[in-house]
Amino acid sequence: MKNFTFLILLNLLYLAGFSQSNIRLNNYWENTYYINPASIYSEYQFVASGAARKQWIGFPGAPETEYLTFAARLYTSGTHNDQIGQIGVKVYHDIIGYTEFINISPSFSRSFRLNTKWLMNLGAAYKIQNISFDFTKATFESEEDLLITTKETKWSGHNADIGVEFVGNSFLFGVAIQNLMSPFLKDNSLQTNSNFVYGIYRGEIDNYFNLLLGVCVIKNENLYQGEFTVSGVIKTKKLPVFQLGAFYRTKNEIGALFGLDLSNTVRLAFSYDYHVGDISHSSFGTPEALLVWKFGKIRDCECEDLFK
Fold first, then answer.
1. Which of 167, 216, 241, 294 could form a disulfide with 44 if both were Cys (CB 3.0 to 4.6 A apart)?
2. Residue 243 forms beta bridges with which residues?
3. What pLDDT is attached to residue 135?
4. Using CA atoms, how far apart are residues 303 and 273, in angstroms rounded to an integer?
């Protein structure tokens, strides 16, 4: 029984670290605030969003992830040139098997105009991390093991994220460090340190079609991943803005991206990715939905065209 309990705990720690290392949104290209506290959305004073992701449908105990974000621009007046920065909050919820994570992360970012073409945004976030293990959701080989593990175990921790973004009319470059304090914490395997370096290009082919390209490199401890995405954005006067694209994530994941402007201020994004490796034998893929609501349009905005 002791050996069985040890194996349960060992697998639990592995799954928790695996969850935090690899579960993230496909649609963060729509709003990079999901990965970087320095991100500031142009044109609008307030941006709220919500996202849900069901990892590996059909795979027992696979992660389920939800995000909520809200960001508010700070100004000395109502124009883009008089901004002070941005305050925001991100709530993250992840369940994998009988492990549950809840992170609450308030943030502040400051914007600096480098020249007529580029802005630099610096940001930092404080994180309250709550972790709980509910052993009653686990499957045990004997009633004796079940009786020992009927109690739910919880604890909380503290962490931080930092980041920088450079924003132009057609390009965006960013660097983000998540869970900055994890290498110095006792339980650093539960919420591991992750580093992101990414770039986005938006090119206007004509008045009706834009091309979006995105590249992101992620380092999580000794694990490296690359993500590549390409999308086409179709704009007409009679129909809403429509986006269709595809992405590849190393190793063995491919997927499709879909976006639609439901109104001038509400945008829906959806993705579906499929793992072509060993997981494909037990899973039908991963759906994800994201809703972005922008309101409080800035008067006389001299905003970069990237996110218009």
1. 294
2. 233, 259
3. 66
4. 33
Q: Which residue has the tokens 């939800």?
A: 66
Per-residue pLDDT tens for 217-229? 999 878 899 999 9
For residue 268, the enclosing domain spans 2-307
Structure tokens given for 299: 């008067």
DSSP 8-state secondary structure symbol assigned to residue 251:
T
Separation between Cα atoms, residue 43 and residue 29, nearest integer Å = 17
Residue type, 47: V
Whether the model pTM is above 0.85: no
Contact between 305 and 202 (Cβ < 8 Å):
yes
User: Around Cβ 126, how many Cβ atoms within 10 Å?
Assistant: 14
Judge whether 274 and 282 are in contact, CB under 8 Å. no
Q: In whole angstroms, how far apart are CA 200 and each of 115, 167, 227, 276?
A: 20, 10, 12, 26
Distance CA 91, CA 62 (A): 20
Q: Tell me how far apart the alpha carbons of residues 308 and 301 are, in angstroms, rounded to a whole number.
A: 11
Residue 260: give its domain's CATH number: 2.40.160.40
